[in-house]
């Protein structure tokens, strides 16, 4: 059956996208058919449905996204050609995230850089009875983490996480959604892999470029009784992090794909 209309919304940042998608699917009867990332923190969501529904959804989503971040562009394409759609990459990128849709509220916290995100994640799970449902990079130094739980716990967690992120680095945006739409789970990062273990302390050094990271690691292990347990980079195609012995740890960049 031919698609009546296609709607495309492109924003910068996961908080802006999640807020927009939640509003879009609560307002009209449309279907989520794809997502895409092209780097620099730009995220795209693609919907389909009747032309009037798609137009309302895109209008509402654009307005909501503008309140939360940067809107790059938005468009409605009536009667799109099937041959053109078949060559587009967005349709192959929908996979269930780590939240599994079983929660009362969803919280998303976004920072510029990993250091403030780790500080925020630690504060969030300590501040409320929440589940860390996943985290990932989206380019442009933007990273985000998602937590789920009751509305009160998620609100407390996000508030604590925001303060911790501001102390540790650059906070970008945060969002709490009560009774979020099911489609949001398809946009969230997968649940963290690997075993969870307690540690006396965790230190993170973030650099621009590889040379600084190597130099910092060398100084740290020479000056203190510590172990370098892994490294990661801010591009989702760079593969898994590595332990010092060369074995693979969990993939740190598991969420959005670039094509």
Would you mind describing this structure in some detail?
- By secondary structure, the chain is of the alpha+beta class.
- The chain folds into three domains: 5-87, BMC (bacterial microcompartment) domain (Alpha-Beta Plaits, 2-Layer Sandwich); 105-187, BMC (bacterial microcompartment) domain (Alpha-Beta Plaits); 202-238, no CATH class.
- The chain contains six helices and eight strands; from the N terminus they run E-H-E-E-H-E-H-E-H-E-E-H-E-H.
- The protein has helices at 14-27, 51-68, 82-86, 114-127, 151-168, 210-223; strands at 5-12, 31-39, 42-49, 70-78, 105-112, 131-139, 142-149, 170-178.
- Residues 236-259 have low confidence and may be disordered.
Write a short abstract of this structure.
The protein has 259 residues and is α+β, with helices and mostly antiparallel strands. It folds into 3 domains: 5-87, 2-Layer Sandwich (Alpha-Beta Plaits), CATH 3.30.70; 105-187, 2-Layer Sandwich (Alpha-Beta Plaits), CATH 3.30.70; 202-238, no CATH class. It contains 6 helices and 8 strands; from the N terminus they run E-H-E-E-H-E-H-E-H-E-E-H-E-H.
């Amino acid at each position: 059956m031919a698609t009546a209309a296609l709607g495309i919304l492109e924003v910068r940042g996961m908080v802006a996208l999640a807020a927009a998608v939640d509003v879009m699917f609560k307002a009209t009867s449309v279907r989520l058919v794809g997502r895409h990332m092209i780097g620099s923190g730009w995220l795209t969501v693609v919907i389909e449905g009747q032309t009037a529904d798609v137009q309302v959804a895109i209008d509402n989503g654009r307005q909501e996204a503008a309140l939360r971040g940067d809107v790059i562009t938005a468009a409605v394409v009536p009667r799109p050609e099937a041959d053109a759609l078949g060559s587009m990459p967005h349709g192959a990128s929908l996979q269930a995230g780590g939240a599994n849709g079983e929660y009362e509220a969803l919280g998303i916290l976004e920072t510029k850089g990993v250091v403030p995100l780790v500080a925020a994640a630690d504060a969030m799970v300590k501040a409320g009875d929440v589940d860390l449902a996943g985290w990932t990079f989206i380019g442009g130094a933007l990273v985000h983490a998602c937590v789920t739980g009751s509305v009160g716990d998620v609100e407390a967690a996000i508030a604590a996480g925001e303060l911790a992120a501001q102390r540790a680095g650059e906070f970008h945006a945060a969002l709490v959604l009560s009774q979020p739409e099911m489609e949001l789970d398809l946009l969230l990062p997968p649940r963290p892999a690997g075993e969870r273990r307690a540690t006396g302390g965790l230190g993170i050094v973030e650099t621009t470029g590889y040379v600084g990271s190597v130099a910092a690691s060398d100084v740290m292990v020479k000056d203190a009784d510590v172990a370098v347990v892994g490294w990661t980079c801010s591009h989702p195609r760079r593969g898994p992090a590595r332990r010092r012995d060369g074995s693979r740890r969990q993939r740190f960049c598991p969420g959005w794909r670039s094509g």
